[in-house]
Amino acid sequence: MRVAGAAKLVVAVAVFLLTFYVISQVFEIKMDASLGNLFARSALDAVARSTKPPRYKCGISKACPEKHFAFKMASGAANVVGPKICLEDNVLMSGVKNNVGRGINVALVNGKTGDLIDTRYFDMWGGNVAPFIEFLKAIQDGTIVLMGTYDDGATKLNDEARQLIAELGSTSITHLGFRDNWVFCGGKGIKTKSPFEQHIKNNKDTNKYEGWPEVVEMEGCIPQKQD
């Protein structure tokens, strides 16, 4: 009886040890697989991060150099979607912000700090050009001026208003016509014509929308005003 009991004990211990060994081996394999998957995912994530293109301010295509302000802007789309003006990753004017309207939309920015000074829009179809002229005359030297049309930005423009905008660096303002799309970035006190201007004529043969040309977009880097 003692021999049989001892034999059962030996068998039980052997089964326990065998079971423990098998479980430990399976667990070790699963741990190795889990760690392998974890390292693989980490490596893939690192590759994805390294290949993902960088995002620049306002979504422009490349970074601006030091002492420059990044900007991106678009004219309105027909009479449906308003213009959008972004500077240094801050949306200054847009339909979402509910601060755009028919006519010429204007954002004024401090040329030294990049801080927003004012946003306005002037109805050049059913409005009066006089308030727009007074607004243009009051702009201070060193101010960055960003403009974009929505629907119609030209019908009520007169020679005085066009000349004031030309003095901000615009070339296209002299022949901006009914329902043309136009975006412009210039400045008060600028000594040369601005390189930042896009203009598409309203032409029934080439218009993207019925009665309106396609949206014009523009991006760039505005030099910061130095003392």
UniProtKB/TrEMBL annotation:
Q: Which UniProt keywords apply?
A: Disulfide bond, Lectin, Secreted, Signal
Listed GO CC annotations:
extracellular region
Entries under InterPro entries matching the protein: FAM3 (IPR039220), ILEI/PANDER_dom (IPR039477), ILEI_FAM3C (IPR039475)
Kindly report the protein's main subcellular placement as a broad class.
secreted
Instruction: Determine if Signal is one of this entry's keywords.
Output: yes
Q: Pinpoint the ILEI/PANDER domain residues.
A: 102-189
Give compartment(s). Answer: Secreted
Q: Does the keyword Cell cycle apply?
A: no
- GO terms of molecular function: carbohydrate binding
What family is this protein classified in? Belongs to the FAM3 family.
Q: Report the protein name in the record.
A: ILEI/PANDER domain-containing protein
Q: What organism is recorded for this protein?
A: Sousa chinensis
| Species classification | Eukaryota, Metazoa, Chordata, Craniata, Vertebrata
